Amino acid sequence: MVHYFHPIAWVRQMKLMYYKRDIDLREKGKWQTQFTLENPNVACWRACKVILNNYNVEGGNLINGIAFYQIGIEKNNSLEIDVNKAKLAIKYLDKQLELGKPIIVGVDHTYKYKGGINNDDSTDHFVVIIGRSSDKVGTFYRFYEVGTKYENKGSSDDNKLYVKNNNTLKGIPSYSPKHKYTVIQIRKNN
Amino acid sequence: MSIINRITLLVFLSLFSCKKTPIQSVSEKVKKHTLNVVDKVIDKNNFIKIKWEELNYINNDFHEFTSLKKEDRRYVKLLNNKEAIIVIMEPTKYNLDSIQATENSIILYKKGGGWIYKFKWIDKKRHIGRWDYIYNKTVIDSSFSMYVVNEKYIDGLSKN
Lengths: 190, 160
Known about the structure:
The complex is a heterodimer of chains A (190) and B (160). Chain A has 190 residues and is an alpha+beta fold. Chain A has helices at residues 7-18, 44-54, 83-98, 151-154; strands at residues 23-24, 69-70, 72-75, 78-81, 103-108, 125-134, 139-144, 160-163, 169-172, 181-186. Chain B is an alpha+beta fold and 160 residues long. In chain B, 21% of the residues lie in helices and 43% in strands. Chain B has helices at residues 3-17, 21-32, 35-41, and strands at residues 51-58, 61-64, 75-78, 83-87, 91-101, 105-110, 115-123, 128-135, 139-150, 158-159. Chain B has an eight-stranded antiparallel β-barrel with strand order 1-3-4-5-6-7-8-9. Chain A binds chain B through residues 38-39, 41-46, 61-62, 65, 112, 114-119, 121, 126, and chain B through 65, 67-68, 72, 74, 88-95, 112-115, 133, 135-136, 141, 143-144.
């Protein structure tokens, strides 16, 4: 048997090792707005659960009252990030996306929003991670936004959460540029 | 006597003339107005362990929320003096600093502050009340608030 170095095969192998392949789980009819559900103003988590259900995925609940990964907490007028947890959380997102499963995540957009509604005092809203890709800005995760009644906004190409240096995911939803999201919770799929 | 001496004397005399009793009684009142009063003002059994299920308020009346599956309906349940499950977005267990009772309300103080959850009767005979979410001391968020009925008495209401 003769072994030889093949540059194209080598580059392909390196790409597989160091770059993540693009994943896009978006499909017509699988997005859900929170505004057609009962108590629409507080239905973001339930809308995210409907989306998971549309993909035959169960999960998204708190486990014994806490999130699977709590990446950040609002404290002293800022967001404290657990960088190691954030790194693990990204690995989990990748694993689930590669299995074809969307993931519910909690985002922060306003410090102590309405006093800090959730029991982590930090999560303001929920969205669903639905893909992964990269552009000239960097690697990003696509998300379904449930806080709009328009499907083109909810499933927009512009709904991107970019990976930052501290492993956090940050982005702006297409429907509302004033909201600046930071992912601070990852919910577990069953 | 110099002016400084006169002022010192005045301060000294005014300090000794202060009564301690009213301050103590105020703090005692505050203490009494926490958990113990729950027993006195409203029967504790009406709150602890009772599930308060959300009602739909339509056409000036209260109805069971039949458009939602039972497991998707919102509710409030005090587990004990320190914990409550409150379903606003999702079923969530909250730790409480204290439960305070006034003459016509019960107030849950969430641990860490930020907001309170305040109960008042709407129709005591029908066991219907309202939980209000209050933040920034006075702001009520109606989306986070709900009309409720003691789950034991929900069958007496019309379906909707």
